[in-house]
Amino acid sequence: MEFSLISQQFRNEVTRLGVEELRTPEEVDNVLSDSKGTVLVFVNSVCGCAGGIARPALALALKHKILPDKLTTVFASEDREATARARSYFEGMPPSSPSVALLKDGKLLYMLHRHDIEMSSPAEVARMLTDAFDKYCQSAVPQESSTGK
To answer: Residue 47 catalytic?
Structure first.
């Protein structure tokens, strides 16, 4: 299988969760430079800990009742300029992929690095993320009415 077909599957694992893919530096700036509220940036990767831990953990975490206002992703292995631009918003943090950043009003609040991810289970990483959501995010996921209305 071609690398591009495999990486597209890795992208789809994240975008099917409702996460907006940012593929250019301009797209990153459009979202992060003027953002109000909380923005999650998932730095996706082709490595094993991205596929075995980080992407499944993100899927689990996004089922939580409190979520960031906006969900975004960059793909470190292919969209290098977009990833570099996203990382420029992670002031003082070394490059890491996979990783997850949480920003509010364009300022970094929380960073989960590869070293936090690679020795943990998906459930443990999801818990770290949901703890950060609880601490920094105000938006609750709308709950369906039990009457179906």
So the answer is: yes
Among residues 22, 31, 49, 112, the one annotated as catalytic is 49
Q: Which of 47, 62, 86, 103 is catalytic?
A: 47
pLDDT at 140 over 80: no
Q: Is 137 a catalytic residue?
A: no
Tens digit of each residue's pLDDT (9 = 90 or more) over 83-111: 999 999 999 999 999 999 999 998 999 99
Q: Where does residue 40 rank: exposed (0-12), middle (13-18), buried (19+ CB within 10 A)?
A: buried
Question: 114: buried, middle or exposed (CB in 10 Å: 19+, 13-18, 0-12)?
Answer: buried
Model-wide pTM > 0.90: no
Residue 24 C-beta-side C-alpha neighbours within 13 Å = 3
How many Cβ atoms from other residues are within 10 Å of residue 52's Cβ? Answer: 14
Exposure pattern of 73-94 as b/e (b: 16+ CB <10 Å)? bbbbebbeebbebbbebbeeee
Torsions phi, psi for 55 (to 5 deg)? -65, -45
